[in-house]
Every structure is written in C-alpha cells, then in structure tokens.
Amino acid sequence: MDHPGDVSGLRRLIDDGEVDAEEIVACIGKTEGNGGANDFTRALATTQVTGLLSQLLELPGQEILKRVALVWSGGCEGVLSPHMTVFTRGTTRSETVPVAAQSAGTGAERLAISVQRTRSFLPEEVGRTAEVLEVAAAARRALDELRVAPGAVHYVQVKGPLLTPAGIADAAARGQRVVTEDPNRSKAYARGATALGVGIALGEIEPDKVNDKIIAKDMSLFSAVTSTSAGGELSDCEVIMFANSADATGEYRIGHGYLQDAIDAPGIRAALRAAGLEFECEPDAYAQKQIAAVFAKAEAPPGGRLRGQRTTMLSDADINYERHARAAVGAVIASVTGDPRIFVSGGTEHQAPSGQAPIAAIVRVGTA
C-alpha cells in the first residue's frame, strides 16, 4: 500500500484474476498511522476497501462490512511495510466446512477460517465483562462453523472498539461510567476483554474467574492463540479464527508460538516450523518464499529491561512504548522472513504469559 487509502494493489489482484472479489472474507493489514486512539488511517483504509468492493460487487457499503472483516493495525515503525493480507474462502466439500483455498486434496490438515461478529457495544460496555461474553459467544460460533477442536486453532484475530471522546461524552450524558476516560488507555481494556472472551471459548480460561476487576490487570489469565486490537473505526468486534482442518483443502497451514521477548529470533523460527515450513538453521530464499504471512504482538520488556539491559521503551516521553516495540519486533521478524510485510501490533493484555508475545505464521506447504 503506497498510502493508507491505497487499494490499487488489491484492485490489480482482482483484475488479474488472482483474487475473486466474491470470495474475500477478511483483510488484515498495517497502516502508517500512529496506532493511537486518534489514528484515522485505519478508518481511511476501511472506507477505501469497502468502496472498492462495493463498486465491484454492486453492493451497498454496509453489506460489504457485514461480509468482509477489515482489521487494521496502525503504526509502521522501523522496517514494517504498509500492506494488507487478503483472505479468500472458496468452495467447500461440505456446505458447512469453510476452507481458505480450494484444490484437489486427500484430507491432510490445511488452513480454514471462520469470520464472526458481535453486536455493537455501548461505550460503558467496552473493556468490560459484557464485551468478554459477546466475544466468547462469537468465538464459539467460529468453532462450530469450523468443526474443529480448540487444539486445532492456531490464531484468533479480534478487532474491537476503543473509547472515543464522543463515546465517553455519550455515556456521561446517560449517567453511565466508562472503564476509563482516557481514549488511549481504553485500548488496553478493550484488547484485554476481547482476548479473555476467546480464552473462555477455547477452554483456556474458566468463565467464573473473569470479572470487570481483573481485565487488563490479572495477566495470569490469557489465551495462547489470540491477538487483539482496538480502534475507533468500529463499534462491534470482528472475530477471525484460523485453524488447521482435515476437512479443508488448499496449500496453506498455520502454526503459532511465543516470542520470549522482543529479540527472540528462535521463537520466530519455531512458529514457522510449527506451521510446516522446512528449513535447516535459517530459512533460505526458497523457504522464505513459502511464508505467506506472519502475525505477531509486541510488548515492552517488564521494567524496561531486556535481557538484563536497560531500554528506554517505558521512559521515553516522546515515543509511546508500543511504537518502540513494534519497530523492534518487526525488524527481528523481517530479518528471518526476508519480507517487511509483517503484521505487528502492540499490547499483549491477556494474550500471552507476562513478558511474552504471541506469534503465528501461515506457510505454503503444497496441495493436500
């Protein structure tokens, strides 16, 4: 993407017949904004992709937003390249089993995807238990559609609303209290609530342990396969679940793992191998070409110290720690994959053990 509103690359893929606009179910991308509450590049990207698909499919924009999940993470610090990863879902062997791509197959496990949405949330529900429960219900619907066990799920991307000044004012006018009156601080609560919801649905978290008081605070509760983001460009939550399924056909597999810290190159290689990529010490040029997408979260090291050494991530008054972390993690991942088109978003609330961060990779492994 040459700028946050650039959809020319997607248009070329559609015009060249590489992507069928009818089969697009989700786009996950990075835009070059600041990643904060006032990052309007995400809304611009949503508007432009919606407009293009509305034109091509001859459907109103609202219909496009119902059928295509558009997840954007702002902030392309360092070497991160502005881009979008487009997911299509083709025909299926069974009417109830969605697949990521279609080819003749033998039933070996391949990538499958389910896209679900919650209802819209009132400002006072953002970052609270109501949001947790709605996301949990959406994630359960995804599991039902995919017809897989929770252990087959390797990545769940959730995008939900944060609190805007207008939303905060609306809640106050109705006599309601929001979780915080700081829009940027609300991102942590929103990300945490949606991650907890997925964790409940996948059986990783006991529902009775979740309440408003622990959200974005008790980090002992987490989902091992979830990445969540929050933005002001939507009022509901989009839940995109990725699994490997024996009922799916195609050339892709997904795997996941943890980054122990912001410079954990072995963790990156482990996630690639978990997805099915074969290589010796480092992926060579051929192996790198088989990497279709990498999704990771980034976090400042606890106390600002990385492997015993001081960093300025948590003390820099000019640059938010999330921007430091995205730049660092993006550079390390790109050094392994050879491609700066990496999805890295900040904030790991309830998405990994404290101090760690989740990573997922999709690779081409050939037709099933």
The parts where pLDDT drops under 50 for at least 5 residues are: 92-107
C-alpha Rg (nearest Å): 19 Å
Which strand order do you get reading across the main beta sheet? 4-7-5-6
Strand content: 15-25%
Name a few traits of the molecule.
30% helix; four-stranded mixed β-sheet; globular; alpha/beta; single chain; 9 helices; 368 residues; 60s Ribosomal Protein L30, Chain: A
Explain this structure to me?
The chain is of the alpha/beta class. It has a domain at 251-364: Cyanuric acid hydrolase/Barbituras, RU C (60s Ribosomal Protein L30, Chain: A, 2-Layer Sandwich). Helix content is 30%, strand content 23%. The protein has nine helices and 13 strands. Helix 2 (41-57) packs across helix 3 and helix 4 crosses helix 6.
Topology:
Blueprint: H1 8-15, E1 24-31, H2 41-57, H3 61-67, E2 69-74, E3 83-88, E4 110-117, H4 129-146, E5 153-161, H5 165-173, H6 183-201, E6 226-231, E7 238-245, E8 252-259, H7 265-275, H8 285-289, E9 291-298, E10 305-306, E11 309-310, H9 321-337, E12 343-346, E13 357-364
Parallel strand pairs: 1-2, 5-6, 9-12
Antiparallel strand pairs: 1-3, 4-7, 5-7, 8-13, 9-13, 10-11
Briefly summarize what is shown.
The chain has 368 residues and is an alpha/beta fold. It is built from nine helices and 13 strands. The strands form four sheets. Strands 4-7-5-6 form a four-stranded mixed beta sheet.
